[in-house]
Amino acid sequence: MNPKVRLLATLITTLVIVPFTLSCGGSSNSDLETSLRSQLSATQAQLEQAQELITNLQDQIES
């Protein structure tokens, strides 16, 4: 994998994980579950965007 693509993937992953970790502090179980479900949905959308971006970058690099 190209170093630039790997760096981009790492940055995107970090941008997804850090807010998720911060949102988990000090909630009741019900609030925590709601927060986690919401965060999971947002994370899945961000991951799909990141995968599409990485695929596009790989296509540009190869051509």
Protein traits:
mainly alpha; 86% helix; elongated; 63 residues
Overall radius of gyration: 15 Å
Average pLDDT over all residues: 80
Q: Report the β-strand fraction as a percent range.
A: under 5%
- DSSP, total strands: 0
Low-confidence segments, ≥5 residues, pLDDT <50? none
Shape estimate: elongated
The number of distinct helices, counting runs of at least 4 residues, comes to: 2
Return the domain count. Answer: 1
Q: Give the biggest beta sheet.
A: none
Helix content: over 70%
Describe this structure in words.
The chain is mostly helical. The protein has one domain. The chain is built from 2 helices and no strands. It has helices spanning 3-22, 29-62. α1 runs antiparallel to α2 (29-62). The radius of gyration is 15 Å and the shape is elongated. The two termini are 15 Å apart. The mean pLDDT is 80.
What does this entry show, briefly?
The chain has two helices and no strands.
Topology:
Blueprint: H1 3-22, H2 29-62
Helix pairs in contact: 1-2
